Automatic annotation (TrEMBL):
Coiled-coil region(s): none
UniProt keyword list: Signal
InterPro entries: DHFR-like_dom_sf (IPR024072), RibDG_C (IPR002734)
Signal peptide location: 1-27
Domain Bacterial bifunctional deaminase-reductase C-terminal: 32-89
Origin species: Candidatus Uhrbacteria bacterium CG10_big_fil_rev_8_21_14_0_10_48_11
GO molecular function: 5-amino-6-(5-phosphoribosylamino)uracil reductase activity
Domain of life: Bacteria
Protein name, UniProt field: Bacterial bifunctional deaminase-reductase C-terminal domain-containing protein
UniProt GO BP: riboflavin biosynthetic process
Length: 143
């Protein structure tokens, strides 16, 4: 059996582990990062990919975490990709295309984190547990 280099394994194995990390905790709001990622740290194989490549157990855990959240923070691209799956959940969508906080309806709010602080927004709305669902720039904001 031919031995493969380490980079080959990282590039080809897409074993996914579900990651739950407490990102920031304030007196009123706790932000929880939820991510399905490959062993090499990727959250998608390509841009716009829906994460249907995780296990049934991972999906069940994700749904339990989302059910316990008061709101979900996602980037605009992630929201566009998963709009139907997120349609019945309260979403805060990070976008640079709005200058102020724009509440589309009871479940959808567009927010520019460079202008409006998401921590303060969540505190004002009394969200005690907020799930951070990605994408890359959204995770970067919280870390």
């Amino acid at each position: 059996m031919k031995r493969r280099p380490c980079w080959y394994l990282r590039k080809t194995i897409f074993t996914v582990r579900f990651l739950i990390v407490s990102v920031k905790a304030m007196s009123r709001s706790k932000f929880i990062a939820l991510a399905a990622m490959t062993l090499d740290g990727r959250i998608a194989r390509k841009a716009g990919e829906f994460t249907n490549w995780t296990s049934a157990e991972d999906k069940a855990q994700l749904h339990r975490e989302l059910d316990s959240a008061d709101a979900i923070v996602v980037g605009r691209t992630t929201y566009t990709t998963a709009r139907e799956a997120l349609s019945k959940r309260r979403c805060i969508i990070f976008t640079r295309s709005t200058i102020v906080c724009k509440e589309e309806n009871d479940l959808v709010t567009y927010l520019n984190p460079a202008v409006v602080g998401v921590e303060q927004f969540c505190k004002e709305k009394n969200y005690s547990r907020v799930a951070v669902l990605g994408g890359t720039e959204t995770y970067t904001y919280f870390f």
